[in-house]
Amino acid sequence: MKRMMLLLSFALMLLPASLMGQAKHTDYKLPEVPKRAEYIDFPSLDQGLWFAAQVTPGIFVREGFTIRAELIAGYRFGEFFRVGAGIAPGVLGPVFYMPAFLDLRGNIISQESRMVVPYWNLDAGYSISRVYSGIYLSPTVGVRVGMPRNDFIAGLSYIAQLLPGTAVHGIALKLGFEF
């Protein structure tokens, strides 16, 4: 009888433990994934939209001093090639003119591990003015200082406008910010 009582008491002690092991745990909730946009590190992207704002003072051979404000927007295919469209309202002597152009540009060497890299740029389009209306070309070489997507640019530029029957040309310094 003592054995029977011992066995029964042992079975009663194991009963709650066996029931707890089989119980369904429904009284807690797993954490959910937050419902917000995924983080995107835009400065490190090689592709996407880009913008530039530049000031370009220069000197034309016969016409004298010029200054322009250039606004450019485009698409970046990588660090070595970008395409954009821009306008550059400015004055050449006493005359207002405004080139509208296609902007091609890129780095000459990779900017991945450098703060300063050389770049190239070619603007080609048409200039609208009372006096200086015609084909507009402006190749540039210079340096970019900063991060791959936010940097200051400085370059030496040759400006040529092909007018009916003649051409005007000069040199300029492009100073700006690209983002």
Could you explain the architecture of this structure?
This protein is mainly beta and 179 residues long. The protein has a single domain (45-178), classed as Beta Barrel (Porin). It is built from one helix and nine strands. The protein has one helix at residues 2-22, and strands at residues 48-60, 64-78, 81-87, 90-92, 95-107, 116-129, 134-146, 151-163, 166-178. Strands 1, 2, 3, 4, 5, 6, 7, 8 and 9 form a nine-stranded antiparallel β-sheet that branches. Strand 8 (151-163) and strand 9 form a beta hairpin. The radius of gyration is 34 Å and the shape is rod-shaped. The chain starts with a helix and ends with a strand. The model has no long low-confidence stretch (mean pLDDT 86).
What would you say about this model in short?
The chain is mostly beta strands and 179 residues long.
Shape: rod-shaped
The portion of residues forming beta strands comes to over 45%
Beta strands, count: 9
Largest sheet descriptor: 9 strands, antiparallel
Radius of gyration: 34 Å
Q: Estimate nothing, just give the exact number of structural domains.
A: 1
Global structural class: mainly beta
Number of helices: 1
Unreliable runs: none
Secondary-structure element order, N to C: HEEEEEEEEE
At the first level of CATH, what is the class? Mainly Beta
What's the N-to-C terminus distance?
Answer: 90 Å
CATH architecture: Beta Barrel
Mean pLDDT: 86
Provide the CATH topology. Answer: Porin
What helical percentage do the residues reach? 10-25%
